[in-house]
């Protein structure tokens, strides 16, 4: 009786299960109501999930007793589900993905929309290809993309679609890999276009960037940042140079050898970017960096580039401590050149160690092969081996100059001309001893000034020679080491030189005041054209001051500053190669060169004076003009225009200038009468001057008479502005 009851229960339960399935299938096969079909498909997938679970884990006891149809029913339902799901879900989704990808491909190249949609399009392409390649299916990813692609389905109630579609897509995605027959057909041309566009947007760099960042992030937590104190050990760097920065611990030799190198090896062998099969059917031709050897090389290259950048950023941030006076500068040089306590030596040794990270020597087999080749082709061998004999490393391009400075770069042949840290420190020691002699002398100020004056006169001394040597070292390190080279090899000597220069510059300024400024003021103060007075300045005395080569100003500069100023043509300019930090007031140089230009005009033929020509111009209502300059008369009375030559100053005992004019409305009247050598300049001061050509040798002069008539002449000079140049002396 109990067994019969169990059979009856089993029969009833199985029959109910079959009836549920048949009802769902009937609804799905009936045309019309999309909502009903969606519910039926959802019910069908629930029953199939239940059947599949029971197939794997066993059926409930009440379905057994020999009447179970679980496996048979599931086998029958799979083909039916495939047909119905393809029609209601899969094919519609595939078509939608094709439309989305086509729209993405059609976006203009370089447009913001294309860049913004790249990630979404990549996910769409990946889902599209998963549907066509079931073996690549990722259920979780595929469910998320398909469920998110269509928030609504035409003909289906939105709320119903949003409630049921995620479960339908999850069932489809979960079983896709086990049913290769569910694969869809793709459009090859669309796939190729989408891949090409995505490669342009994403590029293989994304894959490498992600892997690289993973390596760096893991290693960063295990190695502390390296500070300046870590690099110089027990030496006192703070006295000489300092920086608030540090080198990230991941970019040290310890990090490379203990973790980063191994991590890159693991990534190169174990990891494959998931975009490789999505963006190309042939892995080897698309993402070469995803191949273990190439990926390792590129990750290593990127790491050592960042390694170099980190160290360069740190080293270029070093700043030399400012010395308050010459004694402090000498103390710094003492510590700098101490072979046992120098922080610079300790720092350079650290750089040499770090710079040889991953340095490998030439393999024995390569060396033997190279030697054999040289023996066979002895006549063809160059005099200088083109291949460096020393070991090479990935940091050679960056740290090579530092290694060469230390004599540890075997690829650089040793010669007497090589710059070296040892030679630099030896020179610094000589400078320090010389400066100590000065500071301990009976008259330190006099010795300091004498040393500076030697340099000003163009002679070399140990201090400036060593400064030049330090500048050569800084330059030899290259532009990428610019801050480091300047602060550690130039600035120490600069400060010492400034300690010598400051008192010497004050002394030089006092000499200039006594020799030039004082005499100038005594000769010209309160006199025209330097002041608006009736007393004229002595023209011969002006010549003594400004004349080229023999004038007092030129002689002072040549004798006292000949080593730091040089003449280019008639103009004094700082000698950039020998100025040694001496900064000249731009206004001083401008004034000196202005006087030099004037001297060229005044002394064209060696003697003092200049020649020029004047031509009177007709003016309405003006009958006659008479100009008398140093005894030479230019009279104009409505005749043909002509040029009249003049010399200034003229050879007369009564120099001066007078100008009169006659108009239609009045008789002859005097416009101006200026006696003295500077009379011409006083008259020109009243004129409105206009240049008539680009050569600045032809000018129009207009003097407005009291009756408002514009008395006009043309002035033609032999050199420059002629007499107009003297107007620059006013005031």
Automatic annotation (TrEMBL):
Domain Type VI secretion system component TssM1 helical: 503-606
Domain IcmF-related: 39-354
Superkingdom of source: Bacteria
InterPro entries for the chain: IcmF-rel (IPR009612), IcmF_C (IPR010623), T6SS_TssM-like (IPR053156), TssM1_hel (IPR048677)
Type VI secretion system IcmF C-terminal domain residues: 612-718
Coiled coil: none
Pfam families: IcmF-related (PF06761), IcmF_C (PF06744), IcmF_helical (PF21070)
Protein name: Type VI secretion protein VasK
């Amino acid at each position: 009786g109990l067994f019969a009851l169990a059979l009856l229960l089993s029969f009833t339960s199985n029959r109910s299960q079959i009836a549920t399935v048949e009802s769902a299938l009937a609804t799905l096969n009936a045309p019309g109501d999309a909502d009903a079909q969606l519910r039926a498909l959802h019910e069908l997938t629930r029953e199939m999930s239940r059947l599949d679970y029971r197939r794997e884990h066993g059926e409930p006891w009440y379905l057994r007793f020999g009447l179970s149809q679980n496996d048979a029913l599931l086998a029958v339902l799979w083909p039916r589900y495939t047909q119905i799901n393809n029609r209601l879900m899969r094919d519609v989704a595939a078509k939608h993905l094709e439309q989305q990808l086509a729209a993405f491909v059609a976006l203009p190249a370089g447009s913001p929309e294309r860049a913004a949609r790249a990630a979404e399009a990549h996910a769409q392409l990946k889902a599209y290809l998963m549907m066509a390649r079931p073996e690549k299916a990722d259920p979780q990813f595929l469910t998320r993309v398909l469920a998110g692609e269509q928030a609504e389905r035409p003909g289906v109630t939105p709320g119903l679609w949003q409630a049921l579609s995620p479960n339908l897509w999850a069932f489809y995605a979960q079983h896709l890999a086990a049913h290769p027959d569910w694969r869809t057909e793709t459009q090859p041309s669309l796939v190729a276009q989408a891949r090409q566009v995505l490669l342009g947007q994403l590029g293989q760099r994304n894959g490498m960037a992600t892997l690289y960042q993973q390596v760096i992030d893991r290693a960063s937590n295990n190695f502390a940042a390296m500070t300046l104190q870590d690099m110089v050990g027990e030496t006192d760097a703070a006295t000489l140079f300092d920086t608030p920065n540090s080198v990230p611990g991941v970019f040290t030799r310890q990090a490379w050898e203990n973790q980063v190198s191994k991590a890159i090896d693991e990534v190169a062998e174990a990891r494959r970017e998931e975009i490789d099969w999505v963006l190309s059917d042939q892995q080897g031709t698309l993402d070469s960096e995803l191949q273990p050897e190439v990926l390792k090389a590129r990750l290593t290259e990127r790491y050592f580039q960042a390694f170099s950048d980190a160290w360069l950023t740190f080293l270029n941030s070093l700043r030399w401590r400012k010395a308050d006076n010459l004694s402090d500068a000498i103390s710094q040089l003492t510590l700098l050149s101490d072979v046992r306590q120098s922080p610079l030596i300790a720092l350079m040794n650290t750089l040499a160690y770090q710079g040889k990270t991953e340095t490998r020597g030439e393999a024995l087999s390569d060396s033997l092969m190279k030697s054999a080749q040289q023996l066979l082709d002895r006549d063809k061998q160059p005099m200088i081996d083109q291949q460096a004999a020393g070991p090479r490393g990935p940091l050679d391009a960056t740290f090579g100059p530092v290694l060469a400075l230390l004599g540890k770069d075997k690829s650089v042949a040793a010669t007497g001309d090589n710059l070296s840290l040892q030679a630099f420190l030896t020179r610094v020691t000589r400078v320090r001893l010389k400066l100590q002699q000065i500071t301990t002398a009976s008259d330190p100020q006099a010795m300091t000034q004498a040393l500076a004056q030697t340099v000003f006169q163009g002679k070399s001394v140990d201090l400036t020679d060593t400064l030049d040597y330090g500048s050569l070292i800084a330059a030899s390190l290259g532009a990428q080491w610019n801050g480091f080279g300047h602060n550690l090899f130039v600035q120490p000597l600069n400060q010492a030189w400034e300690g010598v220069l400051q008192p010497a510059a004050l002394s030089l300024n006092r000499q200039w005041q006594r020799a030039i400024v004082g005499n100038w003021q005594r000769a010209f103060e309160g006199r025209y054209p330097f002041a608006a007075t009736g007393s004229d300045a002595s023209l011969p005395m002006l010549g003594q001051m400004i004349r080229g080569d023999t004038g007092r100003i030129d002689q002072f500069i040549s004798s006292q500053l000949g080593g730091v100023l040089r003449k280019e043509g008639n103009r004094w300019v700082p000698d950039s190669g020998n100025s040694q930090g001496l900064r000249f007031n731009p206004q001083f140089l401008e004034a000196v060169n202005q006087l030099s230009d004037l001297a060229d005009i005044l002394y064209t033929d060696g003697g003092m004076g200049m020649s020029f020509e004047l031509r009177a111009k007709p003016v309405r209502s003006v009958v006659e003009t008479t100009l008398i300059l140093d005894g030479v008369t230019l009279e104009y009375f409505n005749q043909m225009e002509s040029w009249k030559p003049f010399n200034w100053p003229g050879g007369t005992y009564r120099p001066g200038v007078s100008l009169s004019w006659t108009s239609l409305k009045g008789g002859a009247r005097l416009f101006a009468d200026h006696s003295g050598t500077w009379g011409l300049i006083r008259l020109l001061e009243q004129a409105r001057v206009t240049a008539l050509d680009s050569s600045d040798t032809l000018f129009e002069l207009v003097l407005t008479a009291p009756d408002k008539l514009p008395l006009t002449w043309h002035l033609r000079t032999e050199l420059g502005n002629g007499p107009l140049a003297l107007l620059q002396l006013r005031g």
